[in-house]
Structure formats: C-alpha cells, structure tokens
User: What shape does this take?
Amino acid sequence: MSSPTTAKAGLPPEQHEEVSYLNDGHTIASWLLTGDHKRIAMLYLISTTFFFFLGSVAAGLVRFELTSPAGVVLESETYNKVFSSHGVIMVFLFLVVAIPAIFGNFFIPLMIGARDLAFPRLNLASWYMYMTGGILIMIGFIAGGVDTGWTFYTPYSSMYSNTQVSLVLVGVFIGGFSSITTGVNFIATIHKMRAPGMTWFRLPLFVWAMYSTSLLLILGTPVVAITLLLVVFERLFKLPIFSPELGGDPVLFQHLFWFYSHPAVYIMILPAFGIISELIANFSRKRIFGYHFVAFSSIAIAGLGFLVWGHHMFISSQAMYESVVFSLISFLVAVPSAIKIFNWTTTIYKGNVVMAAPMVYAVGFLLIFTVGGLTGLFLGSIGTDVHLTATYFVVAHFHYVMVGGTMLAFLGGLHYWWPKMTGRMYSEGIAIANGILMFVGFNLTFFPQFILGWLGMPRRYHYYYFAPEFQAYHIMSTLGASVLGLGFAMPAFYLTYSLFKGPKAPANPWNAHGLEWETASPPPTTNFLEIPIVLDEVYDFDPASEHEQDMADLEASENKSGDKH
Amino acid sequence: MQFFNFPLSPPSASNFSAEYDVLFYVLLGLTLFFTVIVSLAVLIFIFRYKKGTKVSRSRPIYENLFLELTWTIVPLVLGLIMFYFGTSLYVKMRTPPKDATEIYVIGKQWMWHVEHGNGVRENNTLHVPVGKPVKLTMISQDVLHAFYIPAFRVQEHVVPGRYTQLWFTATKAGEYHLFCNMYCGTQHSEMGGKVVAMEPKEFQEWLANGGQSVAPMTMAQAGAKTFNKVGCNSCHGSEDTLRAPSLYGIFGKRRVFSDGTSAVADDEYMRSSILRPYDHITSGYGQTMPVYEGQLTEEDVLNLTAYIKVLGTPAATVPTSNINRNSGVSAVSGNNNPTSLSTNALQYNTADPDASPTRRIGSPAVGAVAAEGKNR
Assistant: This one.
C-alpha cells in the first residue's frame, strides 16, 4: 500500500531517522531501568531465549535417553529431573510468557497508536518479577532440581519428593505475578489508549488475541499461584490441604491446578492465533475473512476455556457425570478454533499471496495446528481418552499445539517484526529454508509419538525394556528432534548475524498494513512523532486492484521485451 | 497390526476394545478428512493466488454468514455425535456388572500388589479369567498411581485415601502389558508387569494352587521329575539289570563295591554316586553311568536322593497333571508377535507378597536385560 493510511503520517523527518529506541541511551542502566515498552520487550526476548535454550537442551537429553529401551547415560532419578525441568522451563518461563511479553509488549502500543503501555513502571516491574522467578527456579535446578514433572501433582510433590520443590514453586509463584501485571497493563492500555479513530473493530486481530489472553492471565494465574503456595505450605509446615495422610484431598490439587493450567494452554495458543491472523492477512494482502468471527472466537475460547479443566481428570476418580459435563464443554470449545482455521484458509482465497519467510511459518502453523486441534477430539471424548490419557498421544497432541502451533507462530512473528524491532533485514532465503526444515523436523519428531501413545506407551517413562516394540518409533522421534533442534538453532545465528551485517530495513518492508509499519524501523522512543489518527479500516487491502496493477506491470514488461525483438 | 518393525495397533483383548477401536478409527478418519481438506485448500490457494499468477481476483469476499454458520454448525454437530458415542462407552466402562469377580489392587512405590478373593496374592502381575467380568477395587498406599492395561483399553488412577474401580472382561487369553501411568517417583517406569488372561478352567486351577502356575511339589516329586528328565529311569528300573542295579529300597542298606570295600548307602554316598559314580562301583557292574558332576545342581541331588529314598513306595508317584500348564497360554499370545511378552525380562510371579519390588541398578544394555531377568 503506497497511500498513507493516516491523516498525519508518523514517519519522522529525515534528519531524525537515526534516533530510535535502540540508540536512545547506551548504558546498561538505560536498559535495566527503562520504562520503554520496546526495551522491556527486548529484555524479555533475550531472557526467554536463554530459558528456551535451557529447556531445549533438557528436551534433547530426554530424546537421546529414549533411543534405547534401557536408557543410555542417565539414571532414572536424573532422567526424571531432566524431563521435569524441560516442562517447568518451557511452560512457565517460555510459552506462557514469550508472545505476550515480547510481541504484546512491543506491538500493542504501536498497533493501537499509543506512546507506551498504560503503566510503564509496572511493566518493568513485571520483567523483574519474571527474572526473580526464573533465577529462583534456576537455583532450585542447580541445588538438586525437581522430579515432580511440571504438573507438581500431590501428594508426591507435597509429601514424597526429596527435591527442591519448594524453591521452584516459589519461583513459579513470583513469576506468576509478572503474568498478572502484564495482563492488567494490556487490558488498561487497550481500553484507554487507542489512538483517535482506532475503534474496537479496527483493532488488528493480534490485539484482540492479546486482550483475550490478558483476561485469562488475570483470572487464572492467581488461582495457580495460591495452589502452588499451598503445596509449599504443606511441604514445609504440614498444613493439611492435599495429603490424605494429613487429612487432605490429593484430587483437589488437580482441580485447582487445571483450573489455571487449562486456560494456560489458551494463554499459550491465543497469542499465536493473533500472530497468524496478522501474517495471513498481510501476506495474502487481503482483509481477514470473517474478522468479527475471528475476534469473537478468541473471546469465546477465553470464556469456555475456564470451564473445561476437568477433561484432564477423566480417570482421576472424579464423578462420572462430572466427566460427562466437562467432555461436552470440551467439544464446544473446539468449535471456535475450527472457525479460526476455516477463516484463515478462506482469507488466502483470491488474495495476492507473497510467500515471504513469515508466511512460510504461518502456512506450517495452519497444517500442524489442524492436526493438533483435531487430535484433541480423541482426548476430549471420554471413552477414547481413558486409553490415551497420559500416554505419548497426549505428549504428541500437546507438542503439535505448543511447538507446531505456538513456536511456529512465534518464529513467524519474529521474522515478521524483526525488521521493525531491530531495523535490520535478514536473509530471506535461509529463513524460508529453515521454515521448511522445521516443518519436516517437527513432524518427524512428534508424529511417531501419536502412534506410540495409541500403542500404550506411557509418558514420563525412563525405561521401556519390557516393551521393546516401542523402540523404532522412539528412534524416529529422536532423529526428528535433531532436525528440529537445528531448525531452532539456525535463527539464532542468521538473526544475530543480521543485527550486525544485515541491510537496513525500511519502515514497511512487507508493504504491510497497520500502524506499527507507519513509524520508523526501529521506532523512536515515543513510537510516533505525532499520535496518528486512524481513518481507514483494519487490513485495508484491495487484492483485486493490486492484481490488476500486477497484470498491467507484467504486460508492460512483456511489451517492452517484445519490442526488443 | 504390524508393519515390518512398526506395530500399528495395540493388542485388542477386552470387551471394550472392539467398540473402542471403532470409535478411535472413526475419529482418525475425521481427523484425516479435515486435515486433508484444510491442507489441500491452503496449498491450492497459496499456489493459485500467488502474487502475479494470472487468475481473477475480482469480487473478493470478506464476510459470508452462510459459510460461517456452516463451519460452525458442522463441526458442532459432528462433535456432539462423537461426544455421544464417547460418553456412552465411558458410562459402560464405569458401570461394572453385579456378578463381576472382585479383585483388590494396592499400588505403592513402585509395585502393584494384587489380592484375590480366596487369599491368593501376587505382585506386579494380575491373573484374570477370560470371558468373565472382573472388577478391580484399587487404593494407593502412598502417592498417585494409575492402573493401565493398554490391550484392554482401560485405565484409572489409584489414589491414596479412597477406593477407585475398574472393570473389564478379558476376551483373549495371553499376556499383556500392565503399566503405572501416573508419574510416581524415581522408578515410575518400572512399576509394571503383566496381565495374564487365562481360560477359566486354568484360572480356577491357578487359584486353587495358591497362585502357582505349577502346583507345589514335594522334594520327592521334584526328584522324580529330574529322575525321568535326566534319564536315570532308562537304566535303573525296579529290578537289577545287566547295566545297572535297581535303586528300589537301597537307602540305608550296605553296598559292596567292585574293589571289595563296602559302605552304608547314606546321603553322602548317594551324592557321590550320582555326581562321581566311579568312586565306588557296585560289585558286578562296569563304568557305564555318565558323570553328573557339574550337570546337576545341589538342589537336584537333594531332590533325587529324596526320591530314591521313597522308590517303590506309594509316595513315589510322579505328578504330571500340572506340568507346563503355562505353555498353552504363551502359545496363544503368539511368540512371533513383538507385542507379546515373550521378551519380557521381568518374571514377577513370586508367591511372597512382601517381596521387595524389583529394583534395577544401573542400566545394562538391552540384551543384558533378558539374561538378568532369567537370573532374578
């Protein structure tokens, strides 16, 4: 789109082009004490990447260990700690945090035309809470680790495990407050700080997704925070809550835990939906199909997501009719996700598709998330869940949604917004090749796990020498994990390389539509020199006339080459 | 189902598994159908509408209520249908018949302890009759566990402080995996064993024999088995022959040897004559008997001696009815099928309920495990 979409373009005058949030202050203190949402987002990007790396190493160890039915290098005790740290790091320190705290932080103000989030200092405090939690968890791992799995089921976690459960739980508890404050900040910002003309239905769908996520964050996180604290109290002071030896109820923990942790799955996937909506619309160069349906399906997911926690507990001894109700609502919550998939697919129809790197990740997301979502039906239907629950089928389903879904969307978003965040372009060819590599590696890793689960391979098993028939699939999965690991490592190199050697990015390298593309790359500290006034609709593309223009250009060039002969 | 080294489905051996598998495959069909539809649509669209392709983009659509309602209502209706069938199977799984045989299960770190109604107990195995409903009443002594039999498609948590229940009817004799499928600590992955489904008659015998697959034998009976197996009976009969003297009633008698000495046939004499027959050759015989030193265990020798003591009396009847009763079972489960437990290294079938759970120290290679299991 060449025509300006706002009355007052936010592009800075030429002489100020060099002043951006990145070079506005060079001291370490100017980063660590910043109130700038963009700098805080970059702090989050660095710290979550670090934790993601640790979590991936743990995942690699788990996969390596499972190539032989009798283990390779680890003792069972160590193996249990390794898979627990993989889960704890990935869920609490990466997946829940990453997209909201990095892209939400960076782009909500830019997308709605604000100078910052509503509470900049609270925003900085949230990063410090996240880091305090993260460091406590790391200390816990160094001091001996936890062997409870990321779910911390009682009474094992509260009465039996001789590991650093208390320390790690306090870490998760403190980190949880970072989620709550981020949620509060986003909701206040989206309600109160939209630019003139930025009505609710002109909001990019990413903002809608972040809004739904924030609702989940502030309603769910306090529950899990208190629950985990109760586990700590039971461990330390024998406060009788969950252990039947003390008079408590172990299943109560599962209810409280999943009341948060099921919505937490949506906390992890809704932001990904938001990114995918941006990518599909901007690279199909077409307004998203059924904007209202996509927006409200996010809200529907946020609402219904709070009513399905019991589907994690079909065989936990909860009452039969309880399970029936939870199963019914679980089938209902599948519908909004289906709506999104169909709307995205239809958006591409009659678009002008540009297969740039971010779009490659988005297409990978569509294919993988469809499988991930549909395999959820096997687990939502109670009868079929009885055999499959807690097997590798669940592991595969969860990773199809979280790795194939959230991670691909995260990388898609990272490639999409990287020029805006850093002001540099990366090598498009390598990025596209890496996207395809990840798609292959991902499916090779996790598809065999569906079959393993169907055959009855339980998760969290260190040995399976009594069932050697599982080995072939485990080896396939580990091979895939090596490819996938390469796919995760590559961006670290070529994106870092682009920071130093990449060509300078223009304000709008993708010719995308949205307020964030109307300011410089990287943006100035105040985001916009003047607050923009929004006059046009969201995703205001015109694929038909763009296509006519393409055809006219093509004809002109053909005529030109024809003249030569 | 099996494709080269890749098993494609678990064994199907309970009253639930047929219905379960139908549901599973229908869901699988739906999953494939929608995955193919979405993938094809996405791939066709991105290639057909790639920027610059000569395809009309006129009259693009941005909203269409009919389409939106279609893909809201169709998944909803399909979902509700699947919900109905899934729930109906689940309700069956949670409603045990009144006449079910009750068996009790206790889970503890890291073993399963099973108690049958008549007092027979077993660890890390569960013997059940084929064709008769069985109801398990389960409780945990410490943390959460889950009793999971993939071949039966049944699973339920085993919770401290409350009873949970599980029921099924085995439909096919054989040995199947038994897993703990709720993470329970260090040796979680080894908290398992097997479920042995037996024909009802065999199961009744098994129960009556106190949970031993072979009825307990007296030393003399065991000795008789060895006596026949090793082949003592081919030479040592009820009468003296040219090749060998009869052993009937020799215990306690004085024996005269070919070198002119003599000795009373006591335990010591029996042992040396079995293991090293040429130390003292009975007068009138040659060096025809093989040396058994290193061939027989001390236990075998004791049993043989016990048998020889009672030779010729009614106590010397050889038990035959119970021998190798289990071989029929493993034949059914199919030894060529890797999903059978013929490779299962763990033989948990100990009669002592308080035996400590099987522990593995270190992690030997796969091949070593089988040997280790035999020695256990």
User: Anything to note?
Assistant: The mean pLDDT of chain B is 81.
